[in-house]
Amino acid sequence: MPTQYEYKAVATDGSRRTGKLLAINETTVEEFLREQKLLPIKITAIEERRQLSVFGFLRGADYENLIMFTSALATLNRAGIPLLKTLSIIKIGDKNGRFNYAIDQLKTDLHSGKPLSEAMSRFPDIFSSVYVNCVAAGEESGSMDSTLEQLGVVLEREAELTQQLKSGLRYPIMVIVAIVLAFFVLMNFVVPRFMSFYSAFDAELPLPTRIIIATSDFVTSYWPLMLTATIAAIFIIRSILQQKAGRLWFDRQLLRLPILGELIIKGNIARFSMMFRILIASGLTIVRAVDILSLTIKNTVIAKEIEALGDSFRRGREIEVDSDSFRYFPKQALHMLAIGLESGNLEAMLREVGEHYTKQVIHTSRQLTAIIEPILTVIMGLFVLVLALAVFLPMWNLIKVFQG
After folding, report:
1. Which pLDDT does position 52 carry in this prediction?
2. 16-25 long-range contacts, Cβ below 8 Å, gap at least 24?
3. What pLDDT score was predicted for residue 195?
4. Taking the model in full, what pTM does it have?
5. Hey, which CATH number is domain 63-158, 3.30.470.10, 3.40.50.300, 1.20.81.30, 3.30.70.20?
6. CB 110: neighbour CB atoms within 10 A?
């Protein structure tokens, strides 16, 4: 399995060079550096850490660019245009942007005789290990046309699925942010003026107003302590998540959340099925495909269960659907995989699994939104009610004082 290495080297002019490279071993990195006329000083393997992400495993800020690049590459390759000419034609986004720089580097590597997949592996932030292995399998099997076409379709579905997941969570996040901002403005601008105005009158303030004022006093007096505690908590949580056991515990708690946990599971299974299908369709063995996917799935609990699935394939055993190794992997998906293996039609069965769980994700995200919206509406209503009582009840009391 390729590993990402960080290297330090010296050029012929004496300048120092640093960078990262995805390679099979350190020897491959050394050979690459010598080809670039660089003298390696230090080569270090980078331990891959799964990013804190709830959904999916095809990552990267250039995802939309990757979809356009894959579509253009598939179209021009199908038209019979040589690969070097194809890369010279394709321009994605900003002319001087990062993606076009990567394309130029791909052309340089192809000129030197390297295969496309090896050239792509130099840019792991743009071309994920799943993507690179799909291209490599397509090169080995001579089915680059169909591989690129299937990659384009899967990437588009991945984008649609991600968009559906985001849309399901967008409204709750916006409401929560609005409440936090309103609370901040209230505590720092409204309440201080409110207090200075009413302090001139000898009138007892109502309970909602006293609660608001006490909260404002607390925030004003102890905000440095609260900020320090928040930073410390973030640091501790990050430290825990960087540990294997801590990350495993956190991911397990995510999967136990009502509805959201179900959404995470179905989203990961949908993506796993789609990418599994394209990997074996490209010519990779089942064991190799599962090993690749288990290293790229973000949720470590689901990744561990997929590793167990790979162990079953590696040992030639049937999938034990009721095994304790599969507590979160849906039983229905396991049964369908088992049937696909027995019938010799695994590729078609994976397509069915992917489409089924994609529909399930869409349905569950709508269900999540339908449940959260009324809850957040009630919370927002209570917040506005408390604020209104805190402001208008003292005014009512002042009117009585003036009348008295």
Report:
1. 37
2. 16/41, 20/46, 20/124, 21/121, 21/122, 22/121, 22/122, 22/124, 22/129, 22/132, 23/121
3. 66
4. 0.65
5. 1.20.81.30
6. 17
